[in-house]
Amino acid sequence: MYRDRIRLKSLWGKVVPPEEAALLIKDGMTVGMSGFTRSGDAKAVPLALAERAESEKLKITLMTGASLGNDIDRILTEADVLARRLPFQADPVLRKAINRGEVMFVDQHLSETVELLRSRQMGPVDVAVIEACAITETGGIVPTTSIGNSATFAILAEKVIVELNLTQPLELEGMHDVYIPTRRPFREPIPVMTTESRAGLPYIPIDPSKIAAIVVTRKQDSSANILPPDAETNAIAGHLIDFLGWEIKQGRLSHSLAPLQAGIGTIANSVLHGLIDGPFHDLTMYSEVLQDSTFELFDAGKLNFASGSSITLSAAKYAEVLPKIGSYKGRLLLRPQEISNHPEVIRRLGIIGINTALEFDIYGNVNSTHVNGTQMMNGIGGSGDFARNSYLSIFVTKSLAKGGAISSVVPMVSHVDHNEHDVDILVTEVGLADLRGLAPRERAETIIRNCVHPSYRELAADYHRRALQRGGHTPHLLEEAFAWHLRFQQTGSMLPTTTPAE
Amino acid sequence: MYRDRIRLKSLWGKVVPPEEAALLIKDGMTVGMSGFTRSGDAKAVPLALAERAESEKLKITLMTGASLGNDIDRILTEADVLARRLPFQADPVLRKAINRGEVMFVDQHLSETVELLRSRQMGPVDVAVIEACAITETGGIVPTTSIGNSATFAILAEKVIVELNLTQPLELEGMHDVYIPTRRPFREPIPVMTTESRAGLPYIPIDPSKIAAIVVTRKQDSSANILPPDAETNAIAGHLIDFLGWEIKQGRLSHSLAPLQAGIGTIANSVLHGLIDGPFHDLTMYSEVLQDSTFELFDAGKLNFASGSSITLSAAKYAEVLPKIGSYKGRLLLRPQEISNHPEVIRRLGIIGINTALEFDIYGNVNSTHVNGTQMMNGIGGSGDFARNSYLSIFVTKSLAKGGAISSVVPMVSHVDHNEHDVDILVTEVGLADLRGLAPRERAETIIRNCVHPSYRELAADYHRRALQRGGHTPHLLEEAFAWHLRFQQTGSMLPTTTPAE
After folding, report:
1. Name one Pfam family in it (chains A, B) (predicted).
2. Catalytic: B344?
3. Domain ranges of chain A
4. What DSSP line would sit under B12-54, residue for residue?
C-alpha cells in the first residue's frame, strides 16, 4: 500500500491516475520536472502528456535537473510536446530535433537555472512534477535518487504534482539536504564548509495546499549507459594517478587528495575507479553525479563521504546498491544541483574536478558540447561550474575517435566551452599535460608532445610551427584553424589523404 | 619628513636608496609588485632594476595586481628584465614583446593568481615590492590607491621591500579592508555580505622582520587614459538605461538596481557616468576599479557606497579627488582583488557586471583579449570573474572599429574569453540584445537585428541564413567562420570589395 508513504493524511484524496494529473498541464505552460542524469525523474505524467498530445495541441517549456531516463525526452520529442528544453539533455532523438532547430534548447551551467527562475529572469514555473519516495507529516516532499532542481521548481510552481514511486526505497529518506540560498540582497553564505556539511532539510518544504495531484508509480530509474574500463581509459587513469602521486610528493596534496568531482560518463567513471589502485585513502567526493565508481570506492574502503545531486548506476550496480542503500546512510548526501555545483562551495572546498572533453586544442581550450562547432551533443552540464572554480581543473578524453578518423586534439576547437583560463590539466591515453603557470606557446608544446596521438602529432606540430612564424600570444593560422574539421567533413578523416589513415 | 609614516621605529634603519633595495632581487627570481590598473604601483625599485640590467643579466618573473603605470612595463621590457609576466598588462611595448613570444605572459582571472600561489601551484614569491602610504606601529603595511595582490605577495614573500610614497595621502589609511581567505581544508565563508562589509584589517599584516628595505618615493600614480563620452558611448549608455528602466518596471530591479561593476576603460566608464541621468538612486558599486564615474556618481548624490581594488582616475579627476579623498571615508573601501573579484561574493551579492568586448559573435560569445585570434591586447582581467557570476552579465562595445573597416560583431569570434553561457546582455550604439533564456538561433536573430551596424547587418544575416541551411544547434559555416577576419587582414576591411566601404 502506498498510503503509509503519504504521511499527511489530508493528501490521500489527491491521488489520481497520471492522465488526470497531466490535465493540470496546459498548452504553452512551463513545467519543471525532477530528474538528473536518468535518476529520480518523473516517469508517468510526462507519458500521459505525450499521449494527450496525439489528440490536442500541447507544447510546453520543459525544465529539469539534467538528462532524463526512461526515454522520456524521446517520447516527448516524438509527440512534439517540447517547444523549449533546458538546461541539459542527452537523448539521441531530442538531440536531433534540437539540431534541426525544432526544439529551442537553452544550454546552461547547471548551477544557474534556478537563479534565473528565482530572480524572474526566466519563468514563471506553472507546474512542477516531482518524483518522491514519501510525503512527510507536514507535506514535505522526500525526493528519490536525485534532487536536481526539484526543490526550487516545487517552491516556485503554482501547482505541484507528486509522483510517488513505490520502487524507490524509503531508506533514501534522510539522505537529502535541501538548502535554498536566502534571497538577495540579504543572501547569506552557503553553510557548506565540508563535503559532509548539512545545511538544510531532509525534504522539500512546500505549502501542502500546492500539491494538486499525487500519482503512484512503480517504474524504476533507467540505468547508466556506462562502458567498462578499457586499455585507453586505464591508461588515462594511470597518468592521472601518477600525477596525483607527484603532487603528494611535492607536498601540495595529502593522501586523501581533495574533494573529488567526476563528470558523467565512461571515462570519468573509469578514472575514479582507477583510484582504487592508487596510494590514496580517506577520500571524499563533492560531485554532481555519484556513479558506480563512488560505490566501488566506498566498498573498497577508500572513500569516506560522497556528496552529489544524483545517484546514477549501471544496471548491475543498481541492482546491487539500491536494496542496501540504507547501509550508506551517514556517508552520502544528495543536494540541490545549485549547491552541489555552486561556485562558492566549489572554490571554498578546493575540488579536484575531472570532466570529459569532446575535443581540446593545442592551447588548452575545451569543447564539451558541439560536434564540428554546430551539432549539440548533450550540453555543458556542470563542467563549467566545476572547471572554473576547482583547485585542479582536469579534462580527460581519448586522443582519437572514430577509429582514428578524428583527433580529439585539434589546432583550434570548433566551439569553446572552457577556455585556457579554466583548464589546468589535460589527459589522454598518450599522456598528461600540466598547463599550470604556462603561457600559450608553452601550453601548445606540452599538449602536442604529451596528449596528441602519434598519428596526428607531426600534423599538429607543423601547424604550430607555421603559426609561430606569424607570431602572436596565441599563434594561429585563421585560414587553416578548422582545416582538420573540414577535412573530416569532406573525406571522412581528419588525416590528409597523403597520410595513410589508421 | 617621512619618519612619521614609519610608525614602527625599529624600521627606520631599513630606509635605503632604490638601487640598494633592488639588489635584493636577483636573476631568476619571482617578484610580486603592487599595482592595479596604473594605481599604487611600485615606482622606484623597478626602475633601479631596469638600470641594473644594463650591466648584468637580470631576468625575473613579474607578478602584479594588474596593469602598471609610469611606463614601468615598457621600461622593464626595453631593459629585457621580464622573462615571465602575469596576470595582466596593458603596455604597448610589453604587448609587442608578448606577441613576439619574447615574454611569456600568463593571462589569468584576476581572482585566481593568489590561489595558485597559496597552494604552491605557482611560485614561490621571492621578493615583494609594495607601495605604502604608511607602516603601522606593528609593522603592518598600509597600501595606497590600490591593493591588488599586494597582501598575499607580502605575506608569502621571503623578503618585502616597501616603497613609502609621500605623495599618497595619509587619509587613505582606513579605506582598505585586507581579508585573506582561511586555508583549505578549513576555509570559511568570506564574510562579505554587502558592498560595505568590513571583513579584515586596514593594513597588510606581516612579520616586520621580513621588511628588508624601505625606499622613499615621491612619484604620483599615472592617470587613466580615458576618452570623454561621445555620441556612441552615450547611445550605449542610453540603451542600457532604458533596459534597466524596463527591468524596474517589470519588478525585477528596484531604483537602487544591484551592486554595479564596470570594467576599466572609456566605454564602461561612460556607461556608468550615464547613470547620473537615469531614474536611479542609492546605488552601490562592487567593482574592481573605481574610475572617474564612481566619484561623479558620489558627487551627484546617486551613489551610497563603492567597493573596489583600486582608484584609477583621469589627470583632472585625480587632481580634484586625491586631495579630498578623506571626505569619501566611510563610503569607499579597497579590497584585495581576490575579494573584489571573488566568485563567492559576486554570486552572493547579485552584481550587474558591465564589461567591454573587443568583439562578440552572432551567438553571443565574447572575445576580450585577442585581436584576430592571435595578438594579445591586455588580458582577460576581471571580466571572467564578473561575467560568470553576475546577476546580469552585460558586455558593451561600439559596433564598428577602424572607421568601419572592422565590425565588432562577427560570425564567429576569433578567440573566446566568455562563451554564450556567461553573457546575458549585449549592447552597441545600435541597440541592445537581451539574450536571457534564448537558444542560439534566437540569440543570433536578436543580435543581428539589434547590435550589428547597418553596414554589416545584411552580411551577418546572410551568413546566418546560409548556416541555418546546414542545421545544428549553433549553425556555422566552418569554412567561412573567420572570412571577415581574413578579409580584413588581406584588404584592410571586413567589408567585401563589392560593397562600398564606409
Report:
1. AcetylCoA_hyd_C
2. no
3. 2-217, 231-491
4. GGGB--HHHHHTTS-TT-EEEE--BTTBS---SHHHHHHHHTT
